[in-house]
Amino acid sequence: MVSLAEDVAIVAFEQTPSHAHFNDSEPAMIMPCVNSVIEQVGMDRHDIDFTIAGSCDYLSGMPFAFVMNIDAVGAWPPVYESHVEMDGAWALFEGFVRLQSGDIDTVLVSGSGKCSPGSYREGFSLQTDPYVHAPIGLDPRTQAGFQAQALIAAGKATERDFAEVVARSHANAKNNPYAQLSGDLSVDELLAEPYVQQPLRRLDCPPTSDGAAAMVIARADKARELCDNPVWIRAIDHRIDSHHPTLRDLTDSPSVRIAADRVGLHDGPVDIAELTVTYSPEEIILRDALGLNGETAVNPSGGPLTGSPFMAVGLTRVIELARAIRNGDGGRGVAHASSGPALQQNLLCVLEGDN
Amino acid sequence: MAPRPCAVLGIGQTKYKRRRDDVTLDGLVREATLRALEDAGATFDDIDAIVIGKAPDALEGVMMPLLSLCDALGAIGKPIHRVHTAGSVGASTAISAVNLVESGMYDTVLTIAYEKQSEGNATWALSGGKSGGQGAGGTFAPWIRNYIARSQAPEHIGWMVAVKDRLNALKNEYAHLHLPDISVEKVRESPMLWDPLHFLESCPSSDGAAAMVLGNDDIAKKSGRPSAWVISHAKRTEFGQFPGRDTVRPQAGVECSEALYRKAGITNPREQIDCAELYVPFSWYEPMWLEGHLIAEEGEGWKMTDAGDTELGGSFPVNMSGGVLSSNPIGASGMIRCLEAANQVRGTAGEYQVPGAKISIGHAYGGAAQYYAMWMVSSELNPEL
Question: Full-prediction pTM beyond 0.90?
Fold first, then answer.
């Protein structure tokens, strides 16, 4: 595990509901989150030392879309600010790293994405390499199908296992006011649904979602000054696997295994895991790579199968975990974010309560 | 804890040209990466993390390209993340990589930025994905006219910068434009694109990649090679449009340089800094940034250009490598400014070396001149100012 120069805590967080369609601009979606976290810490927004956002131009269908998003943060007088073309969880990574230098105290992190205006499958096929895969339209759902089929072929899972992930996620989401989908589903009924991408059925796949999330993180002394119940970020690490599905064992996630080791995941109890399960089979791969057993509550929020605003969804996992820890549902847990097709890139963040 | 000292240990660039159709995107970034590793005396095994940057994805039509480039970058099993801050991104990316080293979490970091303009339509993308857009020149020309009106600068200043940077580029094998017969007359007679900017006062469209290997003080000492120490860095952002905004001398640019100088203890940039690589995609931005980044007093920047102070051999050389006016792989252009500043203080700038350069700055700006990223490098970790 990497030794850290500074203890860092989450002192405020906010998320939008996962909207099937948010009928306004992306900044209008982010702004209430930013306003809320600023209000929670009771700071003047100009006293935030560093601001960093995660978003994706291609979701907005417009180059430089992220430039508009600074309207939601405020940039006058000028601010010390940056942006990653990634999920907000990677903005959190950079913000966390920035605090380790010890010369600033607070970072405002956000993530946002509106998937509803575009075609997710067409858009995200452009994530694949532009010479071989993108021209044939190799979209993420297709690759998730390969991954699911590989799991079945390897004897590591069945379609019933996938349906059980879906049923549990939707049931958990009944208690989550931010969830887009929720309810009691029977596994047998799920299995009776037609395939959309064999062996995946409609609810093995995420809904189309719009959403945003924001948080303030701070160095230890400042964190205690700003709130009574900081949630400590004990470690954060991210790793990537090969882009080429044929060069990987799709039933495993080496990058998650490395990251789990680097964050010292099993140096303490893992009460809760909030995982970016975009397609139901991914939960099986992630549980295995993380070495989780029956003692860990997986996606008590319902997870991305019940609301998946890309570019906010990973940061939202961190928020859901922080909220659960604040509520006393567990003392320590792991949040996971993912990027790219078939769980190509993965980030882990270990949070711990104040006790 | 104080930030861990960070040094530039290796620099790698591709040849910049209109169309690098001899390589894929993967080949392009790998070319720069391998050169940076070789220059650092390092291998992929030495790299703990990678930070990649480029301008909007729409320039090449590849969404979140780190996903498809990670194999070529030797990133498998490692952390890699992507910065995007408009035109300032190359410098922002370098600064993010510095943050990784300064954090103490990563000892050696590879940072890379690129653009392959030939695989897309940059003017379309730079116009926000709208057809018939004004492009970057159309955005900046009115502000340049405003600068000329405010400063009373004569019109030949822009032509001089265009000539000076292209003459410098003749000394740089990587530069895109090599125009040995460039002259003030040729610049003046070239077609008018956006009044007052002539064709030869504008940057080219380039393909290319630039990379650096950064390391902490232990790694730098072990390498035994000349290092460029990153003694300061700063970033500032402001809104692109609001009533009363000073678009000629944006406040974010002023505050970015103030923060940069304050951290390094610089009180007189004109005297204490030996040379600068400033982001000058259109000729007039040389005097505008000399003023906007507090190197010259307001209204005095063009006089430095006019007097030849910014030439190689002048008292404050600017864009010794030929600058953005000679090579513009957009997302990489800011990183090139940073690494060329490092080349100067390492003494590895070859034919365009400023003799004895000890302190230099690299700079980039982006969006509607609203994003700023700057770094200061020195041949020594604690230079005497």
Answer: yes
